[in-house]
Amino acid sequence: MKIAILLKQVPVKDATLELSGDNTWIDEDDVQFEINDSDHYGLAEALNIAKANDGEVTVVTMGPDRVKDSIKQALAKGAHKAIHIDDEEMSSTDPLTRAKVIAEAIKDENFDLILSGLQSDDFGYGQTGVLIAEILGMPHATLVVETEILEGKIKVKRELEGGWFQNAELPLPALLSIQSGLTDIPYATIKGIMMAKKKPVAEVDADDLGVDLDTGAFKLQKIYTPVKSKETVVLDGDADSIVSQLIDKLKNEAKVL
Amino acid sequence: MKNEKITSFLKSLFAGDIRQDIIFPFPQQDKEETENLQMILQAWQEFARDNVDPVEIDKNAEIPKEVLDGMKEIGLFGLPVSDEYEGAGVSKTSYCRVFEEICRYDSGIAVMFGAHASIGTNGIVLFGTESQKAKYLPKLASGEYIAAFALTEPGAGSDAAGITTTAVLNENKTAFILNGSKIWISNGGYAQLATVFAKTIVHQNGEDKEKITAFIVELDSAGVSRGKPEHKLGIRGSNTTSLNFDNVEVPVDNLLGPMGKGFLVAMETLNTGRLGLAAGCIGGMKELLQQANQYAQSREQFGKSLDKFELIQDKIAYIASETYATESIVYLTTGLQDRGGVDVSLESAICKIVGSEAVWDASDEVLQIAGGLGYSTEYPYERFLRDARIHRIFEGTNEILRMFVALSGIQGPGEYLKNVGKALRNPIKGFGLLTGFAAHKVKDTITIDHLKNICPELKNEAEQFDKLSARLAALTENVLMKYGKKIIYKQFILQRIANMVINLFGMAAVISRVDTRVKQGKSIEHDLPLAKLYCNMAASRVRREARYVTRNHDKQRTQISEMICENGKYPIDMLLDK
Fold first, then answer.
1. Which of 3.40.50.620, 3.40.50.80, 3.40.50.740, 3.40.309.10 would CATH assign to domain A2-209?
2. Which sign does the torsion angle of CA A101, A105, A108, A111 carry?
3. What distance in Å separates residue B50's CA from the closest CA in chain A?
4. Is the pLDDT assigned to residue B425 strictly greater than 80?
5. Smallest CA–CA separation between B523 and chain A, in Å?
6. Predicted ipTM?
């Protein structure tokens, strides 16, 4: 069974970000990068499925040279091989263009299953995986919390809103985005680290794939730092009234409840 | 007189020779080793962030099984073992850097790990036969076996030669029968394997002599019993028990190293252990600095945050520069060990002394920065302090290590002077020696050895180092002339000589580190202030110690101590005495 995990590299969570000169992306010079958090769960699920079904996991990552570190880490955690789609320019490209490039790069691999994380920590579109499924003409399911491989198909449990779940079966090949937080994420092992450098990494140049990079669904024109504004509201009344006001504000204004 | 045969930077320094060739350029790891190290560190950090809770470990005085299992799964237990025996096969430098990071998360885990990897496993790595290695190392590497190191006894702590555990060959000559007790054994409660030291009878030159021998003992053998875990001030996650041996049969195949060479096995194993321990102290200091910064920047008094006050800046700068120096000496020494062919016994003892004292000072000062909060068990500062305290005690107390450093160091010049004495009795035969001695004397009084081609940024510091090294050599010779063999009892003096060497080694390592970066075209923006502050503090400590060698109050100290001990208490009651 051939399984692909789409893995993105994003700035580390506590990175101090500066905007790039043309205000379309961040200045990457002094920023450290790491594997996108959600993608750890995708990788974990891919490794679990592979283990149970005698499968092989291929890491698919797009980005400049720096993403090789993340590829190596995924290989150290147990993935078998990797495809690196080398590109210097597409950090802030729209998801459709990215999906076209990735789909083109992997279409001949004939993966039985393509997994992705829920969304990326940088843009958070949550679309690239779904779009790839559409381009490659395969069914997809998002927010998957459980999987089971059956003969020629996969049974999935999806998380819906309000505590509801959906059970569905998809014919293979299929693409799934995996809900975060439910699988134990794997740690690299020292043996894995030593073996990682012997595992094959195929290099694909994004420019050679024949995808027109200027025909995206949208173009990012400008990014900017939100203007800071400070407002303190003092809640008056007795304890009960303050509590209900606070709950109302947390629910409807801060939207954290 | 250059003595090219001495391949120890510090032993040469005692004779006034600055063996720059040994410590310059500062040892570097290759790219692949660095990449692997980075990934191992990351694996541990990810695991520790998710699974290690130092507060719970301290409270429960136990490392959770999941943490031990996770560490085994990652492969950390195999760090000191070569890949030939299914270990990680990493350098000493990488090993110590990982150890540093383990200690940063939890000192109890670090002590458990150090007892297993640094001293429990290393005896077999260094002295094991092929079949011993093949039998035990893969199990130790996977963590199926956890190891311990059993030297200390109720009656033999620093005086390791005083152990009374015995191992007697049985009649069939198939096994040694082990009897005795060991105390303070880290991992004693659950280790499957221990390196145990015992007195044996060794035939030498036609007579029987009692000598220490090392054995690999499987702790599930009949006759082995383990004491209850000790309740400790700090490193509470680690398990410390006694081990008792009652007619335990140890197969002759489990003899570790040659008969009668147990002391050597212990010392060599501890050399490596001390480096890991010192690296752990670096991790502790880095964590303390981070905690101190966070607190100092968020706590405001008199309308500004603490970090804006000079007295707080003083503490932060002190801890940072000591961290920098400890890092420099530890990774210089591990680098030399990785390169091989160099004796680093003094260097690794110094790493342990410096690291353990620096992390103790750091935890004390950071607790002080935190004020009242620092004293509360709600915050981590008191735990850092408790955890840091042990490092000055175990794997050789700092006192005994200072004596070791000074005595091993002056041994070279001492031997030399002894030979000079012999040569004087037979001047024709000893002519070569005498000319050498004359040259040596001339050099001491007129010229001094120099660090050469040092980057201009540290030119002054290098000059200070040169002068103070010459002073060390001159003082060494003076005290040897004055006290002769009796020097071994002159602990006041020996301690000062040790302190001089400790600080000189720190300066040399720091200078080498910065100079090497400059020559590689790397930035020293962060390095230079730390290096300069350390070198200047160290130089003034060396000058002070040197002064006290000749001008001191040692007699009063001895007199006072004797007076107190005779009285059994402070002998004065100021207001009541007539």
1. 3.40.50.620
2. negative
3. 10
4. no
5. 15
6. 0.85
